[in-house]
């Protein structure tokens, strides 16, 4: 059966960001039907049965996450939408927010109904100015048409949504840092447990879901769990997925394919292959810069949660970064390390200090002032950060350091041996 | 206490205080309103916002310093942000940055003496399909090569 693009079905239509276009293509019908016919807990079951796993990076089953909410309803519940897309190489949520905001919004309303909450927050990264303007207009349109506010479509269900702009901090994409930021504080991740489903925003039960995850809920409501579960690699890797490809490819972009699409198909068919025909593939990161790197020889992988875990890396946010033979891996890792050193929130010592030292050591290696023992030292620092921090940011720096050094050890050692970068002129310096 | 902002900004901040289940959440939006009017967030502004929210000025300073989008000092009328993270770097962000620096006669992090332009390299803006990508104030451009950059700057001079 040919794959039908559904998450991106509207994005090329003129006026795709407006409610008229969305309604004309059948939008909000799933919501209307669910509100009329389906009890919230049945919708939770439907999402569970679809096999939908979170599209933000961790791949946790969405329905199961919803199920962690306490049964008692003595406190308000909140839904927080994580639109703080910041993982380098990832730009899929931006596409949905800017080009089909109502697909996202319908998913938010459905999900809020499923978890029986009356107030949702849309936490959007501060730099997304266009996305903010587009989404704010979409919310206004939805209120005007009775899809938000009191007694939605005559169902008796009330929901309000507040848009909240971040202000430039990668860490706020981590769910508990996002909650701190929403409360008007520095974005310091919280110790878990308690998990946000029990103690979240303002101490109340809270669900945090990614933008693309919620857009998928719209599709599940529209077409059913069985349809969703038939796409991809059932039973554990189901549904359509947005894949980002960037770096040394001919056509960087967001491509929709079923979960489990071969990476080489994404690269060669969707993205048109390598940008420079004389510079072949050297390595790729499949899931955003914090995931482990794969050398070209190991890039024959399927792009789903479990296949990539078996290959020793992760699907992450599906932000594929492609590097060709002109890339210096020390310089590439230095670039990534500098990112994490800049974005470390500073709360945990291993991360705050470790990221700084990793940058220092990589800088001197790249400058030609590295020492033989530096290569081992890098790996050692990575091991000492991993697992020793409050949030997964520690892994986000440890994994690339560990995997770049292991995979390209000769290149790292050559930098120290020669006292110079052997790759110059490299494409990343 | 003196009110360092215009009355309408003051009123907008008052309206924010009742907008969220807890008042503290009004802090980031209030800082944005102040910055929108003043161009940056001064010590005086922080003290004023702290009074509105009911937290200490030190707490507000802690929040302001945590987020890169709040400016503690004035920036140029056109604040140029050049993404430097790996996907942009692979497609020429470093060359672009060198070009802009030469063109404007200022370095990364500086403001031109006439106050028209400031330049800063920033981390991933989540537009890697348009690499190398830049933002000028709230406008987005990409992919930007040297020639495209010259055209943009010419339009703003």
Describe the structure.
The complex is a heterodimer of chains A (429) and B (157). Chain A has 429 residues and is an alpha/beta fold. Chain A is 42% helix and 14% strand. Chain A has helices at 19-24, 29-37, 40-50, 62-67, 92-99, 101-114, 129-144, 175-182, 211-223, 225-229, 263-270, 305-310, 329-343, 349-367, 374-385, 393-407, 409-418; strands at residues 78-83, 119-124, 160-165, 206-210, 232-233, 237-238, 240-247, 253-258, 261-262, 281-285, 294-295, 302-303, 319-324. In chain A, strands 8-7-13-10-11 form a 5-stranded mixed sheet, with helices on one face. In chain A, strands 3-2-1-4 form a 4-stranded parallel sheet, sandwiched between helices. In chain A, strands 5-6 form a two-stranded antiparallel sheet. In chain A, a hairpin with an 8-residue loop joins strand 10 and strand 11 (294-295). Chain A is globular, with a radius of gyration of 22 Å. With 157 residues, chain B is of the alpha+beta class.
Give the SSE string of chain B. Answer: HHHHEHHEEEH
**What global shape of chain B is seen?**
elongated
**What multimeric state do the chains show?**
heterodimer
CATH superfamily descriptor of the largest domain in chain B: Glutaredoxin
Give a count of the beta strands of chain A, DSSP E runs of length 2 or more.
13
Helices and strands of chain A: which structural class? alpha/beta
Tally of structural domains of chain A? 3
Side by side, the strands of the main sheet of chain B go: 2-1-3-4
CATH architecture of the largest domain in chain A: 3-Layer(aba) Sandwich
Low-confidence stretches of chain B: none
Q: H/E element string of chain A?
A: HHHHEHHEHEHEHHEEEEEHEEEHEHHHHH
pLDDT under 50 segments of chain A (min length 5)?
none
